[in-house]
Amino acid sequence: MLSYRTWFINCKPLKNEARDWQLELEKGNTIHTFTISNKLKLIDVEYFAYKKIDGYVDEEKKSDSLITHGHTVAVLLPLLEVPTKFQK
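^ that's the sequence the OP posted. Answer follows.
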């Protein structure tokens, strides 16, 4: 099994007529799976996996920065405001 940026990459053959591959990208309890044609070169499958993982890591960073820098509070505050007609 290959790893990249704390994600594990696994590719295994599928038992379908086309003899495709199942690509699995795994981190913790999260697994993303993709059906990959057996006509693709291994280097192309690796590139696809790296690009997907780069995207997942970018999403994680954005999510972490919202929490780390207190932006989550700013996002949640409008949800906590009580309209004036319901205030006592």
